Amino acid sequence: xxxxxxxxxxxxxxxxxxxxxxxxxxxxxxxxxxxxxxxxxxxxxxxxxxxxxxxxxxxxxxxxxxxxxxxxxxxxxxxxxxxxxxxxxxxxxxxxxxxxxxxxxxxxxxxxxxxxxxxxxxxxxxxxxxxxxxxxxxxxxxxxxxxxxxxxxxxxxxxxxxxxxxxxxxxxxxxxxxxxxxxxxxxxxxxxxxxxxxxxxxxxxxxxxxxxxxxxxxxxxxxxxxxxxxxxxxxxxxxxxxxxxxxxxxxxxxxxxxxxxxxxxxxxxxxxxxxxxxxxxxxxxxxxxxxxxxxxxxxxxxxxxxxxxxxxxxxxxxxxxxxxxxxxxxxxxxxxxxxxxxxxxxxxxxxxxxxxxxxxxxxxxxxxxxxxx
Length: 373
Hints:
By secondary structure, the protein is of the alpha/beta class. It is 19% helix and 21% strand. Strand 6 (165-170) and strand 7 (179-183) form a beta hairpin. It is globular, with a radius of gyration of 20 Å.
């Protein structure tokens, strides 16, 4: 049994910003209780798309450099991993023996730094399936076993996927959380029913219903791998100028093809939206996102965020080079975190996203990239 004292003693990060003890956390059985620090702040990092490969039990040196520099500069009290943690496009990466070789160096780095971490999954983590390969559940269990007292077990087993739940933040001594971090499994690929590419998955009915039931009015942030398609239609992007060559490549001047309900449109980042748009977004197809399996009482996930009114922002991975962050016409703030990998495509300036939240529901966020090291 892990005690409050042993948990805190194992984590140097808590000395500067917050502490943790085991207790109730929105339905997850063994998640730590995180508290705001004496300065009223709680800092954590969003890591996504690490695409780890078996590499002789070594992290890529540039990835390790970025992570160590981010830990040293920001002293996070939590790490939130939102999928494509391993490079499922590599045929061996989730095979028994290879998976452990890929993730052990990362977990060991977290343990060396003494920083708690929670994990959910992306479309590539369990892309290849079979008796000799780690499923999502087996991967989650391995992170839990290897991470020991630093693993944040936020999973609510009855929910779709693995690694779906909430991590709550408390003011010191408070019985009710002041801020919630919803960390959810957005799936991989819907079942193919025809010859066409099936697109990507998204959160499903039970996840949306559970969020509406447990979130109340507590301010929250939302984290998942695959972005919602609503990002394309509510003002974060604007139509690109007409292009003389209809076959011109996507780019910062010609725009990027976005999936909209009325068909694809070339779009650019709207003025005033922070960060960068360096590739088209890759959400689920609208037909998937709006079907009965992905809505609750007819509401999509985005509709639920609008209905509850307590969402402060939703952040995603999946699109490796995008870092935009802005509030759309409906008051929903949506952002992306760039990848932290050299095991897949990138913009040669990998990074993580830093969050500092306060009990009043406000927060600040920025990208920490290799160029900042």
